[in-house]
């Protein structure tokens, strides 16, 4: 074999080993993603959990408390955005709902529910920041579970109030779509909190 082919053969023979080493290295970002995927397995909506939390893999690492922080942050962002959207739809409601006071009332109630949900999620995030394994851990964790459960109840109440109302179907479906997604995020956050 000519010398230049020998060198090429040696280089090529080392490539698979180099690629395999890189693929199994603990520093590969995919390992953090695997932690998130596995952790999301305890939730009711694991695919939504994974898709919304995997962008935080670098911050989360393999820390379950950091994962809960990220879940609460994503849920709160979704609730704030949905609250704003529902409020905008409520302002437009009189024009879109053909003068139906009942329909406008359902949207107004939903806005109130979403405001309450946002407040409860903020309380949960604040509690999470101060959560440690001291003597008050069980009480603080119980408070978080209560607030996130209440946020989920408020979101469900909003959706229930829309059903059967006389509002424009397009408006109702848009509000419902947004609130249901936040409720799914909230459910996932609660499932993760329950594992702390």
TrEMBL record:
Q: Which Gene3D superfamilies match?
A: Invertase/pectin methylesterase inhibitor family protein (1.20.140.40)
User: Which N-terminal stretch is annotated as signal sequence?
Assistant: 1-22
In its keyword annotation, does this UniProt entry include Secreted? yes
Key words of the record: Apoplast, Disulfide bond, Secreted, Signal
Q: What is its main location?
A: secreted
Q: Which Pfam families match?
A: PMEI (PF04043)
Q: Which GO terms describe its cellular component?
A: apoplast
Chain ranges of the Pectinesterase inhibitor domain: 31-192
Alphabetically, the GO molecular function entries are: enzyme inhibitor activity
Q: Enumerate the subcellular locations listed in this protein's record, separating them with semicolons.
A: Secreted, Extracellular space, Apoplast
Member of which family?
Belongs to the PMEI family.
Q: Any idea what this protein is called?
A: Pectinesterase inhibitor domain-containing protein
Q: Which organism is it from?
A: Linum trigynum
